[in-house]
Amino acid sequence: MTEFLVKRFVKNHSDIENAAVRQSYGALSSVVGLICNIFLFLLKYSMGVLSGSISIISDAFNNLSDSGGCIVTFLGCRMASKPADKNHPFGHGRVEYLTSLILSAIIVIVGFELFKESAKKINDPQPVNFSIIVLVSLIISIGVKLWLSLFNSKLGKKIHSGVLAATAEDSRNDVIATSATIIALVSSLFTDFPIDGVMGIIVSVFILKTGLEIIRDTVDDLIGKPVSEEISSNIKSTILSDNNIIGVHDLVIHNYGITKMIGSCHIELISTRSFKEVHEIADNMERNIQRKFNISLTLHTDPVDIDDEKTSEYRNITETAALSLDKGFSVHDFRISECNGKTSIFFDIIIPYGCRISCDEIKEHIDNELSIHGCSLDTVITFDYE
Questions:
Q1: For 375-378, which contacts have Cβ atoms below 8 Å and span 24 or more sequence positions?
Q2: What is the model's pTM?
Q3: pLDDT exceeding 90 applies to what percent of the chain?
Q4: pLDDT confidence of 19, banded at 50, 70, 90?
Q5: Cα(249)–Cα(239) distance, rounded to whole angstroms?
Q6: Which of 44, 68, 132, 237 is the residue whose CA sits 20 to 30 A from 325?
Q7: What does the alpha-carbon distance between residue 228 and residue 224 come to, in Å, rounded to a whole number?
Q8: What is the share, in percent, of the chain residues with pLDDT greater than 70?
Q9: Which residues contact 15 (CB under 8 A, 6 or more apart)?
Q10: What is the Cα–Cα distance from 175 to 36, expressed in whole angstroms?
Q11: At what angle do helices 2-9 and 132-159 cross, to 10 degrees?
């Protein structure tokens, strides 16, 4: 069914990097979700009134909030697809994250209100009227929500959308919540204990949990987080596939939405190459990365002298000293400069996040190791974190 709907309503559905195509995917998810959730709201609300069950009514309003979320998702995807302009040179892709934030805020508000109503139901329990019709309607609801979860999950994977993935997760939580409602309904046949209110509390907690998790993930995207280890590894492997490039480091990717990613990276080349050769190698690789990953990557070139014995000796001493402090350290962009009779070495050290060794301590340790080996040098170190 998912493939049929995609092929029927999404033009050029395979071109997922196209903003207009992504908008169509978002619109399809929103319309299908809106239809399903309004149907479930009307079904559950009428059954909740009929049975006098607060947990069923709570579940119904959860579906209503999902309907509002579908509208927000539709508008957000539409705005996110707008092209770059003078005031937004990187496009509008991050509107998708703001959409997730609004959606999660709606979910949290609804969850909090339902929590309060369920707590009141525990303090002042009302009888729940069991009905086969109500039970069947809830089972139908589980089936619809399970399908909707799979539907949005497939769409989310197709276009790598956090919004659709969150929508799928919300639907999975609805399946659990409705199952809790069924337990409350069936339990009313055997006990007067206010299980209905307890299950209403459970439903509201699931709603709150979903909303808070979406907020957490969305805030991470807005603040800025690194690309996945898989993408980072694939980019580095692609760069190193060029035999002219002997090293790669300091890869940084900035995310301006799924369809707009910009970054920079340092590559190491043999220092004897001409400026023209170096530029051509870097330029070709930038185009290759853009074509393969749809990432605008600017490459900074570092010259490496692999034939000079003195440079190799100093680098080996420096790397050994750095690794003796922390196995996660790595040394890059190593070069020697001689000016006015003074010899200096320049290099970068990449430090893992969470390392407690200060930069001053690292420099002091390396200077001592060089001194022990009879190397009287001035070290100029750039510290990077990764």
A1: 375/314, 375/317, 376/343, 377/314, 377/343, 377/344, 377/345, 378/342, 378/343, 378/344, 378/345
A2: 0.60
A3: 18
A4: low
A5: 10
A6: 237
A7: 12
A8: 94
A9: 21
A10: 14
A11: 60
> 């009313």: which residue's tokens?
188
